[in-house]
Amino acid sequence: MIQRAQALAALAGSEFDVLVIGGGITGAGVALDAASRGYSVGLLERTDYAAGTSSRSSKLVHGGLRYLQNFDLGLVREALVERQLKVALAPHLVRPLPLVVPAFDGARPDRLMGVGLNLYDVMSVTRERRSAGEQTWSPARHRIISGEDVKELLPALAAREPSSGYLFYDCQTDDVRLVLTVLGEAERFGAVCANRVGAVELIERDGRACGVRAVDGESGEQFEVRAANVVNATGVWADELRPGELHDEAELPRIRPSRGTHITFSHERLPLVGGAIVPAGEGRSIFALPWLGRTLVGTTDNDYEGPLEHVRPAEQDVAYLLEAVNSFFASELTAADLTGAYAGVRPLISTGDSKKSVDISRKAELFETSSGMITITGGKLTTWRRMAKLAVDRLVEREARDAPCRTQEIPLGQAVEVGELPQVEGVAQEAYAALAARYGYAAHQVLELAAERGELAQPIVPGLPDLLAEAALAARNEQARSVGDVLLRRTRLGLLAAHELVVDAQDVHLAGGGEDRAASAGEPQRSATTGTAEVGAPARRVADVLARELQWSPARTTAELERFAQEAHAEGIALA
Description:
alpha+beta; 10-stranded mixed sheet; 8-stranded mixed sheet; 21 strands
């Protein structure tokens, strides 16, 4: 991506065909779709790309097996088609994942589940023709596997001696990396994107939206961004931009936020090779999934009322997940075993009428109001491309353009084989596979930085594959502006190694030797604190890299560490 300063200048000095508000997966998709059809596109994100719902998903690209229970066949079919397409377009980012529904005590796997999986198999079949020689992934039909096979995929279940199970496949991704990749492709087609730029209000000409008044979140300066069309893709915040227009002109549904909480464990504490469908009581189920070397468990689904900027995992949600996991795996995990936790809010749709309120949470909804502003919300991570197409199709229709959608054929990044990456002195062997999966061919850029400066070849957190070079690349190429941008989104360490990054101040006991000794041991430092948390040495190492890249002064670096400590506490990533 271009430097943020360049993007700001272009946004203020140009008039666009389409201005997209929101830098999550939906906004990124709209930008790519519109730009690839020949529109000039600008995109504004109020905080950081994917900082909202798009970084807090269950990391699955899937049909949604549970929606079959509600007979929502159209939604499942749409999602399964999109799943197949994403594997073809981004094989390094969207990868097949085996999932298991085990049975115990000699019982056969549940027949009703088998019926559902049969339907899932049938609906997974695609008839799209592809060019000769192009490889595509097609999931094998579900099947019954032995108890030994179940234990190989779910080692954490060994103590319960499963007797058999269903095996089927869905796909998994890193949701933030998917957003950043889609934004990068949108920019390749000419889109101009900037984070930390908020849309303050619509600008109108003759009653029609012709842009927005924006504010630079860093300098506080206001400026106008002109555009012939405005698309509101802010997800759970969709009805905060012109709420009167959205709700007063017609009986439009309202956003009903729902909180989803996830927790992570080390692989050693809850070892999984494949994913498991875990019963969670009252007919509900959750996922337990291997993800980025950890085990990810979630999700809850509860109505949420509260601030949307920072959503903490609720204690009762964490307790609910722990109870389900311990009951299923016969384990004794507690909150002390967590390596991280996060929560987000989904933009569920409600009619606003308590007598008619219907949960259509995963269906995309598009609204066009009198100003001409188009609002697209709802949906799910898997169906972002279809949501974007829906919004841009409306623009094409009302302008009578001949501009068909092309995103079904645009690769998202470029995959690379691990063996094709150059060996760089100091880079741990396990880092190469992680880089290939996260960046694809762009992993070469990370390794070039690591080769230029030896300290950048070192891991951010000892024992984990994320490199300090990734922090430098994030600042140079991905508009990362803070420690949190790197640790919560450009890498996912905030979700996977929270206790190495932030520590409850009451638990910090440093031996003599000061900061240098603490840093060398990878222990928490006292250099940046809030009333509740302190940053660890890995966060300081990232701050030092960003300080060099972004020309921070020592005082600014200290302030940025304090800011990260506050953000981490507000997000509750370590439940501190």
